[in-house]
């Protein structure tokens, strides 16, 4: 435990501001999380984040910076490895599993499971708690993810992803009958403050983020689509297909029809780096049954 005695310079300051100033990343949201979860106390007592500090208060930190920023191993998380070498792995994320932690000390995510088997993956990150992961999938999306195992590979693959050289393919079951393939390039607007949902600007296009789709099979209610993604903006496939009029079945955020009670029918089935790897999985059986 670390203790800091408040001097006159910080008298009257909010506790969350004080804590953020003493974190290496100076994050206000992280500061608030630590206070609300009892990892920061004043004179041995939990207080609210807006507590006004007084001279000679003792601020107690019940964590170390190393613990705070590290991804904890969790060998209870099960996942399948489809490709492995000394530099990276390609893994299959089950539906319903978080990709990586969002808060300190969190366990139960795919990355926690990866770190339990490949500790070096937790030491590489461009953003806190993302480790060596090169991309992400939503909790309710299953499929392939690429994770670097060393710093050299991490930097190389980050640049390859940025250049758009990694090809990502998905299967999705959508509401409605799609008769022919096409491409959607409508501009995606980032979520507004306090919202998790992205929005579409129907008056403009964005050639850097394009969703290509091709119908594989259909019945009178649903269509199985084969999708290739250019770019990879948050909720790109989900928002594009919903705007186009064919929302993904089970998508609670972008499909207004809530009658389907199953999982979100989106699966990242293929990951390709030309000349290096081409990893694929089969169409999930439940996707096929829905489109019989």
Describe the protein's architecture and organization.
This protein has 292 residues and is an alpha+beta fold. The protein has 3 domains: 64 residues, RNA-binding S4 domain (Structural Genomics Hypothetical 15.5 Kd Protein In mrcA-pckA Intergenic Region, Chain A, Roll), CATH 3.10.290.10; 94 residues, 2-Layer Sandwich (Pseudouridine synthase), CATH 3.30.2350; 129 residues, Pseudouridine synthase (2-Layer Sandwich). It contains 7 helices and 14 strands. Strands 4, 5, 6, 7, 8, 11, 12, 13 and 14 form a 9-stranded mixed β-sheet that branches. Strands 1-3-2 form a 3-stranded antiparallel β-sheet. Strand 13 and strand 14 form a beta hairpin. Helix 1 crosses helix 2.
Which tags fit this structure?
nine-stranded mixed beta sheet; elongated; Pseudouridine synthase; alpha+beta; 292 residues
Provide a quick synopsis of the model:
The protein is α+β, with helices and mostly antiparallel strands and 292 residues long.
Using the CA coordinates, give the radius of gyration.
22 Å
Instruction: Please identify the top-level CATH class of the largest domain.
Output: Alpha Beta
Q: Overall pLDDT, averaged?
A: 93
Q: What is the count of distinct domains?
A: 3
Largest beta-sheet details: 9 strands, mixed
Number of strands: 14
User: Secondary-structure element order, as H and E?
Assistant: EHHEEHEEHEHEEEEEEHEEH
CATH superfamily of the largest domain: Pseudouridine synthase
Unreliable stretches (pLDDT < 50, length at least 5) are none
Q: What structural class do helix, strand and pairing data support?
A: alpha+beta
**Percent of residues in β-strands:** 25-35%
The 3D shape can be described as elongated
Helical segment count: 7
Q: Approximately how much helix is present in the residues?
A: 10-25%
């Amino acid at each position: 435990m670390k203790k800091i005695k408040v001097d006159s310079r910080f008298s009257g300051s909010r506790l969350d501001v004080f804590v953020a100033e003493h974190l290496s990343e100076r994050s206000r949201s992280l500061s608030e999380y630590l206070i609300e979860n009892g990892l920061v106390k004043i004179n041995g007592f939990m207080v609210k984040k807006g507590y006004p500090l007084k001279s000679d208060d003792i601020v107690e930190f019940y964590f170390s910076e190393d613990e705070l920023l590290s991804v904890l191993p969790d060998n209870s998380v099960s996942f399948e490895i489809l490709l492995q070498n000394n530099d990276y792995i390609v893994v299959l994320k089950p539906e319903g599993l978080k990709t990586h932690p969002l808060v300190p000390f969190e366990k139960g995510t795919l990355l926690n499971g990866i770190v339990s088997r490949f500790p070096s993956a937790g030491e590489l990150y461009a953003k806190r708690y993302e480790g060596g992961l090169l991309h992400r999938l939503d909790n309710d999306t299953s499929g392939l993810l690429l994770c670097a195992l060393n710093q050299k590979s991490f930097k190389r693959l980050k640049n390859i992803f940025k250049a758009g050289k990694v090809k990502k393919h998905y299967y999705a079951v959508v509401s409605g009958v799609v008769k022919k393939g096409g491409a959607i390039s409508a501009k995606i607007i980032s979520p507004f403050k306090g919202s998790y949902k992205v929005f579409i600007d129907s008056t403009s296009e964005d050639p850097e983020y394009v969703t290509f789709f091709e119908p594989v099979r259909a019945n009178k209610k649903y269509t199985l689509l084969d999708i290739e993604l250019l770019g990879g903006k948050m909720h790109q496939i989900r928002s594009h297909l919903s705007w186009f009029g064919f929302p993904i079945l089970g998508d609670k955020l972008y499909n207004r029809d809530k009658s389907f009670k199953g999982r979100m029918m989106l699966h990242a089935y293929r990951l390709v780096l030309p000349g290096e790897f081409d990893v694929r999985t089969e169409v999930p059986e439940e996707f096929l049954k829905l489109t019989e």
